[in-house]
Amino acid sequence: MTVKGRLESRPFTGDGTASRSYHAERAVHEPAAERAVHEPPLHRGVRRKRVWVAAGAAIVALALWIRCAPVPAELLAGIDQPSTVIVDRHGKILYEALASDGSRVKPLDADRLPPVLVAATLAAEDRRFHSHVGVDPIALVRAARHDLLEGQIVEGGSTISQQVAKLLIQRREGLRRRGLRAKIREMVLALRIEHRFTKREVLALYLNLASYGNQATGAGRASQIYFGVDPSMLTPAQAAFLAALPQRPTAFNPWKNMASARSRQQTVLRRMADAGSLTAEQFREAHDGRLALRPRTPSFSAPHFVDMVKSAALASGPPAGRVQTTLDLDLQRDVEGIVEHNRDALKTHGAMNVAVVVLDNRRGEWLAWEGSGNYADADHGGTINGPLVPRQPGSALKPFTYALGFEQGHSPASVLPDIPSHFPTAEPGVVYSPRNYDGRYRGPLLARRALAGSENVPAVALASDVGVETLLRFLTRAGLSTFARTPAYYGLGLTLGDAEVRLDELVAAYSAFSRGGVWIEPKMFLPPEGGSYRQIRSEQRLVSEQTAFWITDILSDAEARAFIFGRGGDLEFPFPVAVKTGTSQAYHDNWTIGYTRDVTVGVWVGNFDRTPLRGSSGVTGAGPIFHAVMLAAQSHVAGDSASDSAPFPAPEGLREVTICALSGEPANPWCPSRVKEWLPLGDDAPACSWHHKSDEGLVTVYPAAYRAWAASGDVSSSPLAPPKPRSGEGWRRAPEGSSVRPALSRPLEITNPPEGAVYSVDPTLRREFQALPLRAVTAHPTVVRWLVDGAPVGSASSDRPVSWPLAVGSHRIEVLDAEGRRASTSVVVR
Questions:
Q1: The sheet that has 589-595: what strands, in order across it?
Q2: Residue 517 and residue 507: Cα distance in Å, rounded?
Q3: Integer Cα distance of 425 and 407 in angstroms
Q4: In terms of pTM, does the model score above 0.70?
Q5: Which residue has the higher pLDDT, 282 or 296?
Q6: Torsions phi, psi of 744, nearest 5?
Q7: pLDDT higher than threshold 60 for residue 734
């Protein structure tokens, strides 16, 4: 009321003073909403006009920024350069786009684009190209309608300008996941490209950047690969064929699916005719004519290696005009010739694919790389890069188990058990019982012979000792990147190759032994003249020099592996070579990997579709190829002195010691078989406790763990099977009281079956053939009695098993010796 009284008392001046005062007072005391009601229409109109002007200016500014902002310079870098040249370490060309006359394929010039190729490209990709500004709303609406009708993305509505934008981005940043954000970015870039370049220049960009399949980037290179002609010489049928490929280069690959490619070509031809680019006669001739393609042959040397180089170069930005690699083209051609020479032999084993790599040990550089055996063999995955494909390596992983064991205190003189054994697994009640390749057991084996002969059971025993988790970490440190599961998943079978690895990574890991235990990351590039690649190179010590020497000395010991592999085969050379073979389960893969001081060579033989091989092992399949490649590689690196290559030197701290070939202990005067072994200085172990001279002749005292094996009659399978005894000399068990190396934690133990084991009755086999051998070991030879669920089963010497027929159910098995000692275990039979 007070405010109203003051306003009413003011006189009317006629100049609007009172009115302005009135509105000013209301502006102070009235809410905003109430003020808007009383605001004069003239004022409201002015305010709205200002808002619309500001909004319009912002829209215009945004449109100008979208349309006229510059295209990032890094996206356009190098687009007008000739195709990249990739050369080997000596400057010899591995990859280059060449025309039929041998000249380099240059980018198509916007002023000289072949008219028939332009017409075909517009018909295939963007019929409204000359009518839009980079983005075609009509095409977008049409594509959205088709996608809704189909319930999936079947059409994108992208213009040629948008595709140029996408190709420029991919060229700089590589392939990335597609999405709405990427689509909007491409549309904005397409608008800017249309503002900066003429329509013909945009077309030239597309024709030079688009992928036409089979490693052909750009219409110029595609024209050479598919037809062997310059783009200016293309016929309408050929131009339509090429223009059809970029949409789906894999699906329309004529060397894999000619029918699909031909169908797409016919569609493009009809569109060209509808657009008036072809007369009726030209259309009929192109439509009905036969399309002749050039035979599919590798268009460059070392194609799998070049593919990797191109991908790596693109990952770090557009490649330079000249990229120098580490490859040795002469050696590469030797490798290819060796693979071809062995083709018929491989086919007899059912092997269609081969992968070979050669690594320079000193520099850590790839010298040769064969990916499949035949890049052009589309029926058998010829373009697959085999060294990068994870496959089971079989026994080729064993050296790393031994290396880890040597790091933890074992030596080549350590005795490992090659006897029937059972190891617990992560699954309760399930045990792992490894077997050797030939199904035989050879008793106590020195680590040298066990590794050189590639025996499975000793390797598993050693893996159990070092631990699967530790072994898995060690393999990862050695550069093997394919172990994605837990240690429990792999189990002790890891040491036998029950996991997949890559050939290139396995070869790099082996090469560490040639450098005294130092692992370095391999490289494929050499720095250009006057510059250097910013390539991060990791290097680390994997094992000690002592361990590296022991592994190398064992793998190059032909005599140590002779009891399995014989002498004079593909694993022996006129110079020292450390070599290991591997065969995966069911003969799917076989490997041979080896090294000298100069090079490491790896060979894999198999089938990419995992078809099993026929009776082929690492020796018979990969071995012959490895032998020839190693000879060639060593010759290329060492030259004429290859056959005079020095042996691997022993590091300081080791000395040669004469040891017993059976016990691994320093030989005593009665040891019948002795060998030299490199052992650490100061390692003065007591003399052999296994061999003794008695009044009755030579006596061999086996530790208790090996007595059952010795009594089973398998002694003859040992690489140290005793010679025929001379007069007054014989092999026998030691008498009671003889000195025996401790081997038991208790005086009576059951070795089979293990506690908690689960067995399954096979319904397809007769019951009398399904029996469980019951075995026990004792501190001294004696007679033991066996009981199952309290019922007697039989008695026998502690060195011999007793057979018990399997019966379904849970059972308690007991054994008693002559002195009343008792041991027991429980099993389940299902």
A1: 365-370, 353-360, 599-606, 589-595, 578-583
A2: 14
A3: 25
A4: no
A5: 282
A6: -120, 140
A7: no
At residue 69, the 3 state secondary structure works out as coil
Contact 309, 370 (CB under 8 A): no
Kindly give the interhelix angle for 180-196 and 41-68, rounded to the nearest 10 degrees. Answer: 80
In the DSSP assignment, the letter for residue 396 is G
Q: What band does 177 get if pLDDT is binned at 50, 70 and 90?
A: low
CB of 412 within 8 A of CB of 554? Answer: yes
Question: Any bridge partners for residue 365, and if so which?
Answer: 360, 523
Q: Which two tokens stand for residue 366?
A: 């790839």
In a 3-state reduction of DSSP, which class is residue 579? strand
Q: Classify burial at 15, counting beta carbons within 10 Å of its beta carbon; exposed 0-12, middle 13-18, buried 19 or more.
A: exposed
Tokens representing residue 720 in the block:
């140290």
3-state secondary structure of 734: coil
DSSP state of 622: I
Helix 199-209, helix 160-173: angle, nearest 10? 50
Find all residues with CB under 8 Å of 318, minimum gap 6, and list them.
Answer: 77, 78, 171, 172
Q: Tell whether the model's pLDDT for residue 594 goes beyond 60.
A: yes
pLDDT at 22 over 80: no
β-strands 85-87, 322-324: how paired?
A: parallel
pLDDT digits (tens, 9 = 90+) for 355-396: 999 999 999 999 999 999 999 888 889 999 999 999 999 999
Structure tokens at 451: 């590794």
Helix (H, G, I), strand (E, B) or coil at 529: coil
Radius of gyration of the chain (CA): 39
3-state helix, strand, coil in the chain (%, to 5): 40, 15, 40
Neighbours of 613 (CB within 10 A): 23
At 613, list the tokens: 């091989």
List CB contacts of 734: < 8 A, sequence separation 6 or more. Answer: 692, 699, 700, 701, 740
CA gap 385, 324 in Å, rounded: 20
How far, in Å, CA of 717 to CA of 702, rounded?
A: 16
- Which pairing describes strands 578-583 and 757-759: parallel, antiparallel, or unpaired? unpaired
Name the pLDDT band for 573 (thresholds 50, 70, 90): very high
Q: Which of 477, 682, 456, 675 is nearest to 585 (CA)?
A: 456
CA 659/CA 678 separation, integer angstroms: 10
Looking at residue 656, its pLDDT comes to: 93
d(CA 236, CA 248) in angstroms, rounded, equals 20
Do 685 and 741 form a contact (C-beta atoms < 8 A)?
Answer: no
Which pLDDT tens digit goes with each residue over 43-68?
667 777 777 777 777 776 666 666 66
How many residues are present in the chain?
A: 830
Lookup: tokens for 387: 């060294």
**Two tokens, residue 608:** 């990419």
Question: Measuring CA to CA, how many Å separate 27 from each of 13, 15, 31, 38, 39?
Answer: 21, 20, 8, 10, 10
Work out the pLDDT band at 143, boundaries 50, 70, 90: low
User: CB 818: neighbour CB atoms within 10 A?
Assistant: 12
Cα separation, 190 vs 185, in Å, equals 9
Q: What tokens were used for 340?
A: 């071809």
Sign of the CA dihedral with 480 first, then 482, 486, and 492 last: negative
pLDDT at residue number 738: 34
Q: What is the 3-state secondary structure (H, E, C) of 350-390?
A: CCCEEEEEEEECCCCEEEEEECCCCCCCHHHCCCCCHHHCC
pLDDT at 135: 83
SS3 578: strand
Distance, CA of 524 to CA of 88 (rounded, Å): 10
- What dihedral do alpha carbons 706, 712, 717, 721 form, nearest 10°? 70
Q: Which of 670, 397, 420 has its CA nearest to residue 551?
A: 397
CA–CA gap between residue 232 and residue 112 (Å, rounded): 9
Alpha carbon distance 823, 821 (integer Å):
7
